[in-house]
Write a structure and sequence with these properties.
The complex is a heterodimer of chains A (211) and B (126). Chain A has 211 residues and is of the alpha/beta class. Helices cover 41% and strands 19% of the residues of chain A. Chain A has seven helices and six strands, in the order H-E-H-E-E-H-H-E-H-E-H-E-H. Chain A has a six-stranded mixed beta sheet, with helices on both faces. The longest helix of chain A has 21 residues. Chain A starts with a helix and ends with a helix. Chain B has a single domain, classed as Methyltransferase, Cobalt-precorrin-4 Transmethylase, Domain 2. In chain B, a hairpin with a 2-residue loop joins strand 5 and strand 6. Classes of the chains: A alpha/beta (211), B alpha+beta (126). The interface between A and B is medium-sized, with 27 and 25 residues.
Chain lengths: 211, 126
């Protein structure tokens, strides 16, 4: 019995030392309002006990790259350490007038638009620093958005592995199959970052890709 | 009063000899002239990213410019391995000419809806 406890302890400690990869740079990318920050928050809350940033219904809420270092995630006795980057949503157009519909005044809306354009540039520049990218898409929206295609094209060109998350699966209009059909070459996991639905499958796929 | 909309067809040969930066400059210059461009072929992935970056810079610096709408339509991928190889070589040597790219200023083009084989342009009322 004692021998078994010692064996298990040694196996556990040694296993942890060898299975722990240091700071896998994991980026959350995608168009605005896909749920990047909600997913990053869910992960950070699960493993660090604190959130990463503020999510909002207003597009371009995240306008600067947000980083969390040393996020240890354990899945089936294996622990990996991630450096998580939540990035501003990538868009091809930003019109300050769109923000006026969310109750902002003209000055606030123009400021937000200015910061959002800088955020898009920053997101693209940071692509080179990533080792694994999770593209977070709103599964209620048409996936054939050129931003998604350009993003994937750039990741493929940089040989960065891609995991596609079809978020908001809790919504009635969610269509995960259309995302799978649009990107048949890539793993697609349907989740609800807000409710935590299917988050275990997400971790499983993440660990599969870091192997 | 009638309003005018210009759609400019650009054969790939028109940009094939240009550097990535020159291609983007040429496209953005036409977009600023309120033209919708139908480009034969497509830009490289890094050029598309660069086009988005330059567009973002311009939004902050050019009055009234709100960005672009962009869509690329590619032919059916259900082809034989041999044809894929043949097309891959041609793409490497001559660029990706099989696709069709639609780019327009966001001030005119409200939305481009795309499914695998169809592009729909929704224009803003002028």
């Amino acid at each position: 019995m004692v021998l078994k406890i010692i064996k298990d302890f040694v196996k556990h400690v040694i296993g942890r030392i060898f299975s722990k990869r240091s700071n896998v740079k994991l980026g959350f990318y995608g168009p605005p309002n896909g749920g990047k920050t909600t997913l990053a928050n869910k992960i950070c809350k699960d493993w660090l006990g604190e959130e990463m940033g503020q999510a909002s219904k207003i597009p371009h809420e995240t306008r600067e790259i947000s980083i969390k270092e040393k996020v240890n995630i354990t899945y089936k006795d294996k622990t990996l350490t991630f450096k998580i980057a939540d990035t501003p949503g990538i868009a091809t157009k930003i019109d300050y007038e769109d923000f006026l519909h969310f109750g902002m005044n003209k000055t606030e809306a123009k400021k937000r638009a200015r910061e959002a354009t800088k955020g898009v540039i920053e997101s693209i520049k940071w692509l080179d620093d990533m080792e694994l990218v999770v593209i977070v898409l709103d599964s209620t929206q048409n996936p054939y958005n050129q931003v998604n295609i350009t993003l994937i094209g750039n990741l493929v060109a940089r040989k960065i592995p891609v995991l596609i998350v079809a978020n908001k699966m809790d919504l009635r209009k969610s269509d995960i199959k259309s995302i799978e059909a649009a990107f048949p070459e890539y793993p697609v996991i349907g989740i609800s970052a807000k409710n935590g639905n299917n988050i275990e499958e997400f971790y499983e796929q993440l660990f599969e890709m870091v192997k | 009063m009638a309003s005018k909309l210009t759609i400019h067809f650009m054969p790939y040969d028109e940009i094939s000899s240009l550097s990535g930066q020159e291609r983007i400059k040429k496209l953005l210059k036409m977009i600023l002239g309120d033209k919708i461009i139908l480009l034969q072929g497509r830009l490289k992935a890094d050029e598309e990213a660069r086009l988005i970056e330059d567009t973002m810079v311009m939004i902050g610096h050019i009055r009234g410019f709100k960005g672009i709408e962009l869509a690329v339509i590619t032919p059916n991928k259900n082809i034989t391995v041999f044809d894929q190889f043949r097309k891959g070589i041609a793409k490497m040597l001559l660029g990706d000419r099989d696709a069709m790219t639609v780019i327009g200023p966001a001030s005119i083009v409200k939305e481009i809806k795309k499914d695998p084989s169809k592009i729909e342009l929704f224009l803003k009322k002028v």
